[in-house]
Design brief:
Layout: H1 2-27, E1 34-48, E2 52-66, E3 71-82, E4 87-98, E5 104-113, E6 118-130, E7 133-139, E8 141-142, E9 154-161, E10 165-171
Antiparallel strand pairs: 1-2, 1-9, 1-10, 2-3, 3-4, 4-5, 5-6, 6-7, 6-8, 7-9
Amino acid sequence: MRNSLLFIVLLSTSIFGRTQLLSFTNKFDISDIELDVHKVGPYIGMQQGKYSSIEFGAEYQHKNVKLIRPTTYSLHFGFNYNFSNNLLGYDLGYWYKAGRFNLTYGANAIFRTDYTTNAVGFAPVVGYKVGQLHLQTGYNFLSRTNPYFPCNSFFMTIRFVLVQYRNFNWKN
């Protein structure tokens, strides 16, 4: 009698424990865990094409960290200067990355001036980001087609972002 009573008690606690475990696992799926990371900071970079210029600016990054297919996008604003040709430029841009090891795709709205001639345009860019280092390549489509305007058409840029502010938000 004691053995059967002990068996019934153990069986009922085992069944109750399993239903609690099953209800917990139904509520909690590991693939649904998300973490939003917001980063803001200045960047320094170098643009190389036919002409070399140094870049300074600020960048905001939003990363949605998930187990499957994380996404990152970024907004940046900066200026670049070519010392040898006295060319000043401003860039306002956006890039997007889907996945962990994929390429970044984006575009920049650009303004260039040599203090006598101005040019506006856009530049589609493709790049690769590792940590805070971002390598991009692109082509500047400008409103001025003067061959003597000292601006890169095809270029490569490398930037390093110095993250100054970071915020984490958990989503379930």
